[in-house]
Design goal:
Number of helices: 8
Strand order of the largest sheet: 3-2-1-4-5-6-7
Helix content: 40-55%
Strand content: 15-25%
Radius of gyration: 17 Å
Shape: globular
Number of strands: 7
Distance between the termini: 34 Å
Length: 249
């Protein structure tokens, strides 16, 4: 049973590892014996994370530069070898009314939230296929399923993540690469800061769940490890909501 949920000896790449959900997942993998390359733009915060435990390496990089992703993937593979597990967790949320979203902001959000998971995975998939085993764990959202105020572009990208995950599964799972997504509810991170700074809004979202509270980052670790480990060898193309039952109501 222990080996079913083990990531020991695996190599992982996690983008957005300088904070929030990406950092929590990267730390959990490393703490359980995986060798993890964290990627983010904020080099200082990333280096601080890498210094926090064994099996961690920092690689500063901008995943919004889609043309540079082949080189980024090569540099990742030079550290611990080609990754077995990819978690493209980097993301942005402009939180603007529809009338205020510029073309540049729309494109930047699409590039980071939706395009980088596909193009980075495409670079890493051949090495996974050669081993006959791999994992891609995308990050979806409550906005994958429903609309929120000022969430037009963010919601569009997170809706796209669900279909991208299914398309990845169709393309790559025959080679042993399981492709799934986790859809978090409301968790207190830098990205969700505006929600948690508003007490009424924070409490509203807690009340919208079945369990009566917002998430803490530890709530994401068990589902992530399941999708990263052999336990999920027959699970692919799925979006797993980790939201305390928010989408059940």
């Amino acid at each position: 049973m222990e080996t079913m949920f083990s990531v020991e000896g695996r190599v992982a790449c996690v983008t957005g590892a300088s904070s929030g959900i990406g950092q929590a997942m990267a730390s959990a993998l490393a703490d359980r014996g995986a060798r993890v390359v964290g990627v983010a733009r904020r080099a200082e915060a990333l280096e601080e994370w890498a210094a926090g435990g064994a099996g961690r390496a920092a690689l500063a990089g901008d995943v919004s530069d889609l043309g540079a992703l082949p080189d980024l993937a090569s540099r990742v593979a030079e550290i611990f070898g080609p990754p077995d597990i990819l978690i493209p967790a980097a993301g942005i949320n402009p939180r603007q009314p529809a009338a205020a979203v510029s073309i540049a902001e729309w494109q930047a959000t699409v590039d980071i939230n939706l395009s980088h998971p596909f193009f980075l995975a495409r670079e890493m998939v051949p090495a996974m296929a050669a081993k006959g085993w791999g994992r891609v764990i995308n990050i979806a959202s409550l906005q994958t399923f429903r609309a929120f105020q000022n969430g037009n572009v963010y919601g569009a990208t997170k809706g796209g993540i669900a279909q991208l995950t299914r398309a990845m599964a169709e393309a790559w799972s025959g080679d042993g690469i399981m492709c799934n997504a986790i859809a978090p509810g409301f968790f207190h991170t830098a990205l969700s800061g505006p929600v948690f700074e508003n007490d009424a809004l924070r409490d509203h979202h807690a009340a919208m769940t079945c369990v009566g509270r917002n998430g803490v980052l530890e709530d994401l670790i068990g589902p992530m490890l399941f999708l990263a480990a052999p336990a999920s060898d027959y699970v692919t193309g799925q979006v797993l909501s980790v939201d305390g039952g928010y989408t059940a109501k």
